Amino acid sequence: QVQLVESGGGLVQPGGSLRLSCAAPRSIFSIYVMGWYRQAPGKPRELVAALTSDGSTNYGDSVKGRFTISRDNARTTVYLQMNTLKPEDTAVYYCNARRLMVPPVDYWGQGTQVTVSS
């Protein structure tokens, strides 16, 4: 069983920043695409950001220019730096590890709540 351990969620005011962390087993970190998804109440889960092992990134349109995904290979940890947060960023954020094959193999973290409110 693959465990993805997330941390860093919480309550922040609009315009503020948060950094999420996700620690993954070394066995998957180097070959899986690591990413973050989020799900707000009543809405489907959506991609926030993804990062391949060779450094390619992909961001959801609503977070481009505000969020940055990065990885620390020594710590086998992926980060999501979130700046200029907006109330509409409020959601449960999930770490994801995906192996690109047919069908793809996905592992998920337990989720961490991010609330943007004054």
Sequence-ordered SSE layout with sheet pairings:
Blueprint (H helix, E strand, L loop, with lengths): L4 E3 L2 E3 L5 E6 L2 H4 L3 E7 L6 E6 L5 E3 L7 E6 L4 E6 L8 E9 L5 E4 L3 E5 L2
Parallel strand pairs: 2-11
Antiparallel strand pairs: 1-3, 3-8, 4-5, 4-9, 5-6, 7-8, 9-10, 9-11
Keywords:
mainly beta; seven-stranded mixed β-sheet; about 5% helix
Shape: globular
What pattern of helices and strands is seen along the backbone?
Answer: EEEHEEEEEEEE
Largest sheet: 7 strands, mixed
- Catalogue the unreliable spans: none
> Count of DSSP E strands?
11
Range of strand content = over 45%
- How far apart the termini lie comes to 39 Å
Helix content: under 10%
* Rounded Rg: 14 Å
* Number of helices, counting only DSSP H or I runs of 4 residues or more: 1
Mean pLDDT over the residues: 95
Content-based structural category: mainly beta
Brief sketch in words of this structure:
The chain is mainly beta and 118 residues long. It contains one helix and eleven strands, in the order βββαββββββββ.
What report would you give on this structure?
The chain is mainly beta and 118 residues long. It is 3% helix and 49% strand. The protein has one helix and eleven strands. Strands 2, 4, 5, 6, 9, 10 and 11 form a seven-stranded mixed beta sheet that branches. Strands 1-3-8-7 form a four-stranded antiparallel beta sheet, with no helix packed on it. Strand 9 and strand 10 form a beta hairpin. It is globular. The mean pLDDT is 95.
